[in-house]
Amino acid sequence: MRQLSVVVPVHNERDNILPLIDEIVTALRGRADFEIVYVDDLSRDDTLAVLAEARARTPELRVVRHLAQSGQSTAIRTGVKAARGDWIATLDGDGQNDPADIPKLLVLRDGSPADVKLFAGWRVHRQDSGSKRYASRIANAIRRRLLRDDTPDTGCGIKLFERAAFLDLPYFDHMHRYLPALMQRAGWQVRSVPVNHRARGAGSSKYNNLNRALVGIADLRGVAWLIRRSRRTAVEEL
After folding, report:
1. Predicted confidence (pLDDT) per residue in 23-71, tens digit
2. What InterPro entries does the annotation carry (predicted)?
């Protein structure tokens, strides 16, 4: 097993692929045993062709493609299942997350107790529109009050987590927005880490405030139900 797999889900991000891959390689080559797993969620542009070009020059790169568009959570899970690393770092494919933060997360992991299984990025200085930041503040406040996950920013794309712990979580669409609460439900600890955040380099966002809100209401109720119905038991082997 490799030490680290960097999983990047993408849909129609052809202009952001090569710059982001170059940044990941610059941040990690010589510092960690790593691979990069891009998951193409059936892009309609030439994302796949650009990834093929990148793979020819980047030995750490692997490419997985969905045969039906399935959304970001499914793409992340596809990448994690395909990954060969014991630990996973995720990045959004739009380039707003800074790969230079990954080594910092690895250092924090190495200095943390073994029961901390998720290091979640916290966009202290978000480079998004005012309406997007406002909607996010409201959504985060509601989520924290309902789920009590003590996490300031669950929507940040850069995260570091243990692969086995992630695959043990219940899977559902949009689950990537609730990883702190789901990890805590499983009995693990979570740390929020301030990270860099950048303006989108090219292309456009695949979401708007309305569709985020509509799916968020149902998801919050579902995650809250999961938490209420959870039960953990200590186990020993005789």
Report:
1. 999 999 999 999 999 999 999 999 999 999 999 999 999 999 999 999 9
2. Glyco_trans_2-like, Glycosyltransferase_2, Nucleotide-diphossugar_trans
Residues 93, 21 contacting (CB under 8 angstroms): no
Q: Computed over its alpha carbons, how large is the radius of gyration of the chain?
A: 17
Q: What is the pLDDT of residues 75-134, one digit of tens each?
A: 999 999 999 999 999 999 999 999 999 999 999 999 999 999 999 999 988 865 555 655
Structure tokens at 193: 């880490």
| CB 193, CB 104: distance < 8 Å | yes
Q: Left (φ > 0), alpha (ψ -120 to 50) or beta: where does 71 sit? A: left
Q: Domain 2-228, what fold?
A: Spore Coat Polysaccharide Biosynthesis Protein SpsA; Chain A (3.90.550)
Q: Where are the domains of the chain?
A: 2-228
Cβ neighbors of 224 (< 8 A, separation 6 or more) are: 146, 147
